[in-house]
Amino acid sequence: LEEIPLKPIQDTGNILKQGYLEKRSREHSFFGSEWQKRWCVLNRKTFYYYANEKSKQPKGNFSIEHYSARLAFHLRKDSRKRCCFELICPGKRTYEFTAPSPAEAEDWVDQIQFLLKDLSSLTIPYDEVDEEEPYNDVDSSDSVNTSSHNTTLNQDELNIKMEDDDIYEVLPGEQPNKQ
Fold first, then answer.
1. Which of 45, 123, 127, 162 gets the highest tally of CB atoms within 10 A of its CB?
2. Up-side HSE of residue 66: CA atoms within 13 Å toward CB?
């Protein structure tokens, strides 16, 4: 089991979603409640849960990478069953939660699925890419940088402009390609 260093709430980085959920305890005793209210925080890679929103240290956390999130109405038999969702990963612990409302449960699932899709994509997040100047292959001082001008052409002007900009030579015996 990989250990994620415990962090206070304010140090968890980019918070995507947070709020109170009821978390099903892994081992519930005869005396203790099966569902405990927890302040839950989702950041870009980790799900944290705290005793309350003022807690400095989480009661636990786990990397959400390789997990999947889904609504799970079977977790409860009472009126809150439509508020349940779970986080599942083969070979790892399943986490079960109850949100304050069915809409909140759906929002948690949507946010987690969105984040998981982002984690599994091969794209480089924009904030990690160095910004580059636009490439300009015209080497003259009086050239106009078209990226700094906002011009709007109607469809007729656009068709005329495209015909004027045709860079291909039509050879004898060939028909020009019209789109």
1. 45
2. 8
